[in-house]
Design brief:
The protein contains eight helices and eight strands; from the N terminus they run βαβαβαβαββαβαβαα. With about 220 residues, it is α/β, with parallel strands linked by helices. The protein has an eight-stranded parallel beta sheet. Helix 5 links the parallel strand 6 and strand 7. Helix 2 runs parallel beside helix 3. It is globular and about 40 Å long. Bound molecules: D-xylitol-5-phosphate and zinc ion.
Length: about 220
């Protein structure tokens, strides 16, 4: 499967955001991961619609929006209009998951469904042929720079098996604690979209992206 890197701008230096996004794109990142936090579903507040609008059209990268917000159905249209290409919502945050997925599709964009580390992968079963992407959170959502939870490997493997059994080739994204020294293992477990924040934006961004891409190519 094609391996994709999705740098998370949560760890970017916002006074240099355009420049840093450019470095990511030039060095081979295909998605840009955009973490929205509401201070309710998670404790922190990050950024939202006006920032996405200002990025829209300024990059060739796919805008991969991860909504860590309660009842995301309320904001699906706004984020779609603001430029999201993929909108991922938390299973735990939705009263009616199917309705949220349907609304995302009605906006003409791709739907992602994600689960927190404590949520069993089985809850995704009814939605396997409904979403284009499934995101396994490998840290508690809410902040960057945490350590990868090793139990996530089993969840990725189980989910890829569940998809394969049904002949579905959906993307599996993994988010949290991914570094150049574990990204290969994450790919081997069956994931193909890798989110990385601190490992990309700390230090030399171009060199960090290139190193991730070099490793990921080995798993295609
Ligand atoms: C965590 C966010 C992540 C975060 C990852 O709630 O969803 O996307 O930016 O950061 P790192 O790669 O530093 O763990
Ligand atoms: Zn994220």
């Amino acid at each position: 499967m094609k391996q994709i890197l999705a740098p998370s701008i949560l760890s970017a230096d916002f006074k240099k955001l355009g420049e840093q996004m450019g470095l990511c794109e030039k060095s081979g990142a295909e998605y840009l991961h955009f973490d929205v936090m509401d201070g309710m579903f998670v404790q922190n507040i990050s950024f939202g619609i006006p920032v996405l609008e200002s990025i829209k059209g300024s990059t060739g990268m796919v805008l991969d929006v991860h909504l860590m917000i309660e009842e995301p159905i309320r904001y699906v249209e706004s984020f779609a209009k603001a430029g999201a290409d993929i909108l991922t919502v938390h299973y735990e945050a939705c009263k009616d998951v199917q309705a949220v997925i349907d609304k995302i599709h009605a906006c003409g964009i791709k739907a992602g469904l994600t689960i927190k580390p404590g949520t069993p992968v089985d809850v995704l079963k009814p939605f396997l042929n409904q979403a284009e992407m499934f995101l396994i959170m490998s840290v508690e959502p809410g902040q960057g720079g945490q350590g990868f939870i090793p139990e996530s490997f089993d969840k990725i493997r189980t989910l890829r098996e569940m998809l394969n059994e049904k002949g579905i080739t959906a993307d599996i994204e993994v988010d949290g604690g991914i570094k150049s020294d574990n990204v290969g293992e994450v790919a081997k477990a069956g994931a193909n979209v890798m989110v990385a924040g601190s490992a990309i934006f700390r230090g030399d961004i171009g060199a960090n992206v290139s190193e991730f891409m070099r490793i990921l190519k080995e798993y295609e």
